[in-house]
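Before relying on records like the one below, remember that each one covers exactly one chain. Contacts with other chains, cofactors or solvent are not represented anywhere in the record.
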Amino acid sequence: MNIVRRIGASPRERGSASGQTCPDIFELADGSFAVIGTDVTEKLDAELPPDAARADYERIVRITRDTLVRAKSDIPNS
């Protein structure tokens, strides 16, 4: 599993003073994506809709709206 590229603006470009410890999105070599975000699994697990579920090894993470909006142009259509 390898990171191919960042999707969207870097944390520093989004205003992080240190450019570290901020939400981030990466495209992986297999075409899937990896997300760095705040773990909110305990807060949102019970609120998942009936047709959603997560495995024990999966976590629900929160990223800022700005992180996702600024990544939109880098996300392929297919």
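The radius of gyration is 14 Å.
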